[in-house]
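We treat protein structure as text, and this decision shapes the records that our systems exchange. The remainder of this section carries one protein's record, kept here as part of the documentation:
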Amino acid sequence: MSRTSTVDLGTEPIGKLLIKQAVPASIGILVMSLNVLVDTIFVGNWIGSIAIAAINVVLPVSFFIAALGMAIGIGGASIISRALGAGDKDKALDTFGNQITLTVVFTTVFVFFGLMFKDGIITSFGGKGDIFEPAKIYYTIVLYGVPFLALCMMGNSVIRAEGKPKFAMYAMMIPSVGNLIFDYIFINLMDMGMTGAAWATSGSYILCLLYILWYFFSSNSDLHIDWSYLRLKWKVISEIASLGFVTLSRQAVVSVTYLFMNNILFHLGGEVSVTAYAIVGRMLMFALFPVFGITQGFLPIAGYNYGAKQYDRVKDSIYIAIKYAAILATVVFVLLMAFPDYITIMFTRDQEVLSQTPSAMRWVFAATPIIALQLIGAAYFQAIGKAKPALLLTLTRQGFFFIPLILILPKFFGELGVWVSFPVSDVLSTLVTGYFLHKEIKTDLEGKSITV
């Protein structure tokens, strides 16, 4: 695969450029998702189905802390893409230096408090009954590795903002492959159980950070900073925060969703229902990898060309990204509707879990073909630096629709109400996003294309 420079973002044909950006992103997400998937399969088969539920309890907490790095990374990446498009390298360097400092400070503080109040946090997120003890073991060890993951997520977003998708792909692949190797050694060979699963995860984060550091200290990166850029600057922080808050809010809502889901499902069906949700959740991470890859590939293209005032290219990138993502989402939908039983049996042989999960999976993915519009639409506003609409559209699905639905529908339909909430919220959020994206294209992009 040929090396992409930042200038290519503003000159290559959009379709070719999107493929060049999205394929490495998709491969990276695929490998990362396969890691989560295979990790869950290993844990379910080598430790037991309760271990799957235990990891599902810990994920929202560790992912929220790691999402601080992702939020700072994506918020800063939007600034860096536009700064490079406008030829302002000093602003790009200032932004990157502040991203590093903010990530280290915030994740360290959150990990400290996360460990201090771990028993209460684990219980709150559904770690009850037989789930509590294995969840506590996993949580404690994984939290030590989360700051490394946060730095990786931040660095990966910056690599992508530079127009270097191949290196960003490697950064996502390394911890995934490392985790699977460590899983085999610690769980299967050394029989370390949940402790081994946790150390495998934390060890993989460290491997990823070593690669990220190598990239930025090598000649591959255009962003070589010195200590002066690490000094926090309020103007830079505020701009990173306004855009990064979108990503952080999304992950915060995801964490709250896990809190409600694990507790509601535990109340309705006990450990079995929590395990079913854990399996479906892994498929949500894995199956949509090509759609997420298109979204990740779209971000630097839209940001760079908006910064370069090439508004026709921005508009083209929106339409092409939605088309590609919708086609891929439809393929995913067909496969999941056809083979949910075969997918479930890979994770566990527990008959109770096997009886519940396929039906849940079909409901959860029922509206998959239309989600491309929602994902690309929300990503567009973030890419061009419009924080408020980006935040609102990002929160529509889970914050404004999904959480209220899972609190209301189960009162009337029991556990079925939980699963039906997924497609209903997908449809509603896509309608809202489509309206605002169409309005933005007509009033902003087309108007600027005429005057430029």
User: Anything to note?
Assistant: The first helix runs from residue 14 to 46. The mean pLDDT is 84. The radius of gyration is 21 Å.
